[in-house]
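> forwarded from #structure-qc
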């Protein structure tokens, strides 16, 4: 049987042998599961989501991201365990439309989708959460319901969060909220904005939003800006990568930066 399944998606398995025949010495455990697919055509994914009654796992990755290697192994193990669930490996920067549709701005990210709904999401390397998310979604498919969440954030806690966000934004005269760290950014956009700040000798503070989901989600509402990275100067939002990129050639960004934040 060909490694191309009926949906037209190529599996990512290794060849069975030099002549294509199956050897009795090959361990089944070393073969990539048939339900783990490498996305070649986004239309195939669309059809799969429309037709599939069960959940579909979407694993967004990038070749340059070392963190993806660990998640790669876990995804293979999960695909072997949940054989009735379709898994897709999606190269995030190659399929920009799919990545944008699922708000992917860092890799690795794993989405559990059912039809047009997202029923699970894990950003970054969080293996215990990833394993639990897949297990919970499979359980829900089998009619097992999780205990509902406590609901929306109380007003007093929301006020405390806003105070915390304001403190984070004002930690430095120039503050950037990114995915990862300046030395090890976790998405292409964060890598680019850090590069621009360094090239223009701007001294800045940073906050890794992948380490704090409360800050990540709260900042979107606080600043009315839904994506990351986000750059702030003297406590005021400047914008994201596109805006910063446009402001550099005109000199507008440098004019906004306090003199003490310009490296000599």
């Amino acid at each position: 049987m060909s490694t191309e399944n009926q949906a037209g998606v190529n599996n990512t398995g290794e060849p069975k042998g030099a002549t294509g025949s199956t050897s009795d010495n090959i361990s089944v455990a070393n073969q990539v599961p048939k339900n783990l697919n490498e996305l070649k055509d986004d239309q195939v994914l669309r059809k799969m989501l429309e037709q599939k009654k069960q959940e579909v796992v979407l694993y967004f990755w990038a070749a340059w991201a070392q963190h993806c290697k660990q998640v790669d192994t876990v995804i293979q193990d999960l695909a072997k365990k949940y054989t009735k669930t379709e898994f897709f490996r999606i190269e995030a920067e190659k399929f920009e439309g799919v990545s944008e549709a699922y708000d992917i701005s860092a890799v690795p990210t794993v989405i559990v989708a059912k039809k047009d709904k997202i029923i699970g999401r894990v950003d970054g390397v969080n293996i215990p959460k990833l394993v639990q998310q897949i297990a919970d979604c499979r359980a829900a498919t089998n009619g097992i319901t999780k205990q509902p969440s406590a609901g929306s954030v109380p007003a007093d806690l929301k006020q405390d969060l806003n105070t915390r966000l304001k403190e984070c934004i004002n930690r430095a005269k120039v503050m950037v909220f990114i995915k990862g760290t300046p030395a090890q950014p976790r998405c292409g956009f964060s890598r680019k904005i850090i590069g621009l700040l360094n090239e223009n000798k701007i001294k800045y503070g940073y906050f890794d939003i992948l380490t704090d989901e409360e800050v990540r989600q709260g900042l979107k509402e606080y600043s009315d800006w839904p994506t990351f990275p986000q750059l702030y100067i003297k406590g005021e939002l400047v914008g994201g990568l596109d805006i910063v990129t446009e402001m550099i050639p005109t000199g507008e960004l440098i004019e906004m930066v306090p003199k003490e934040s310009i490296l000599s």
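QC bot note: The CA atoms of residues 17 and 23 lie 7 Å apart. The chain has two domains: 10-141, 155-261.
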